[in-house]
């Protein structure tokens, strides 16, 4: 059996998974309008740390992204009963899309992703192996799937999975070039959706072959990834890749689709992504399963998104609710979806997390509640 727990978040919405969840429960969002982010449009929505939050996170002498990841990992390790950092059978798995990309102009070598992993490991005084997962916006979900595969094959007993990404001029300009950023806010699945709102932060979970958790952990049932190879940035119009990932995850878990209680979907609030998800969910016989996107609360946190949304999904299940899909008002997808239009009571046993990203990548993971 593979356990997943000790979920921790350090994000503008809250400095722990519980605090971020309670803020979302109260309908709060960390997505705000900011000046100076974009080139094409200087006023853009994003979930960014305040100066006060940055000062609380910062570690003297460290790059901010290193401090952020270290603080998040330390918070997660405080929720387990073992010293995982000194265990030779522990892997540190870092999920990020761009890492410390701001260094690329002054020191390209230092901007390499493995350098970020090394810096985080050194600050934690971790002597074990560090690996990087960087597969666009499915990186966080894929990292959990990979961690479970490593444990299942006996390579490691414990995996610390941390996702981290920041809002930078590089990422903003990239999404602007696709005309993918909303000029106002993000509205997942809504008829008037017009693009993403970027976000930043870090999230961490521990994956283990043992129940080493202070709070009862979730059980990992199965996961899969699939690539539809449709376009460099556009998803398959038939939802093929996501559909295959979901079906393989369900097959691996050995369950029926109707056993899934709620879905935390990707929901970027872009026209084609959201539509693709509606098609894939119908093909997977999940069109009547309660679903939400959490991007309206935390923005799109790229390599940290999957992990941050898994952490909030776990908190939702622990509190027996499904969070409102913030920003959604009117149906706007080809196929019907059971969107959570308000935060409501919901007892969940088996939950699904999905993610999709550039290059046609898709991932799906199933978890069973404590």
User: Which superfamily, in CATH terms, is the homologous superfamily of the largest domain?
Assistant: Thiolase/Chalcone synthase
Largest sheet: 11 strands, mixed
Structural class: alpha/beta
CATH class of the largest domain: Alpha Beta
Q: Which strand order do you get reading across the main beta sheet? A: 5-4-6-8-1-9-16-15-10-11-13
Query: Which value, in Å, is the CA radius of gyration?
Result: 19 Å
H/E series? EHEEHHEHEHEHEEEHEHEHHEEEEE
Report the mean per-residue pLDDT as an integer: 96
Low-confidence stretches: none
Number of domains: 2
- Which word captures the global form? globular
Oligomer: single chain
β-strand amount:
15-25%
Which tags fit this structure?
Peroxisomal Thiolase, Chain A, domain 1, eleven-stranded mixed beta sheet, three-stranded mixed beta sheet, 10 helices, alpha/beta, globular, about 375 residues, 16 strands
Structural summary, described in words:
The protein has 370 residues and is an alpha/beta fold. The chain has two domains: 206 residues, Thiolase/Chalcone synthase (Peroxisomal Thiolase, Chain A, domain 1), CATH 3.40.47; 151 residues, Peroxisomal Thiolase, Chain A, domain 1. The protein is 30% helix and 24% strand. It contains ten helices and 16 strands. The chain has an eleven-stranded mixed β-sheet, sandwiched between helices. A hairpin with a 7-residue loop joins β2 and β3.
């Amino acid at each position: 059996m593979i356990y997943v727990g000790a979920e921790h978040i350090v994000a503008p919405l809250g400095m722990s998974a519980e605090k971020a969840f309670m803020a979302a429960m109260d309908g709060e969002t960390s997505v705000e309008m900011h000046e100076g982010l974009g080139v094409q449009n200087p006023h853009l929505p994003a979930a960014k740390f305040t100066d006060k939050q940055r000062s609380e996170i910062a570690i003297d002498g460290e790059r901010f992204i290193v401090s952020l990841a270290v603080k998040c990992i330390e918070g997660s390790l405080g929720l387990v009963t073992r010293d995982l950092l000194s265990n030779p059978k522990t892997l540190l798995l870092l999920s990020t899309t761009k890492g410390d990309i701001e260094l690329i102009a002054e020191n390209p070598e230092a901007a390499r992703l493995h350098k970020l992993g090394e810096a985080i490991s050194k600050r934690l005084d971790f002597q074990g192996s560090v690996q990087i997962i960087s597969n666009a916006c499915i990186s966080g979900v894929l990292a959990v799937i990979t961690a479970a595969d490593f444990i299942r094959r006996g390579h490691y007993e414990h995996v610390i999975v941390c996702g981290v990404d920041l809002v930078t001029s590089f990422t903003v300009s990239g999404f602007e070039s696709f005309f993918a950023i909303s000029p106002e806010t993000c509205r997942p699945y809504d008829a008037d959706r017009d693009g993403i709102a970027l976000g930043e932060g870090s999230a961490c979970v521990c994956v283990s072959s043992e129940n080493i958790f202070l709070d009862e952990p979730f059980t990992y049932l199965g996961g899969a990834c699939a690539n539809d190879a449709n376009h460099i940035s556009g998803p398959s119009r038939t939802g093929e890749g996501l559909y295959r990932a979901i079906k393989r995850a369900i097959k691996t878990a050995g369950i029926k689709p109707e056993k899934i209680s709620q879905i935390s979907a990707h929901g970027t609030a872009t026209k084609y992504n959201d539509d693709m998800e509606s098609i894939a969910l119908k093909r997977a016989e999940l069109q009547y399963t309660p679903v939400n996107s959490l991007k309206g609360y935390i923005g799109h946190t790229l390599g940290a998104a999957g992990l941050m949304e898994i952490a909030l999904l776990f908190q939702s299940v622990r509190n027996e609710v499904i969070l409102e899909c913030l920003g959604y008002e009117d149906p706007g997808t080809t196929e019907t979806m059971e969107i959570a239009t308000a935060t409501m009571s919901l007892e969940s046993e088996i939950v699904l997390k999905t993610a999709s990203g550039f290059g046609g990548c898709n991932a799906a993971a199933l978890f069973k509640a404590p």
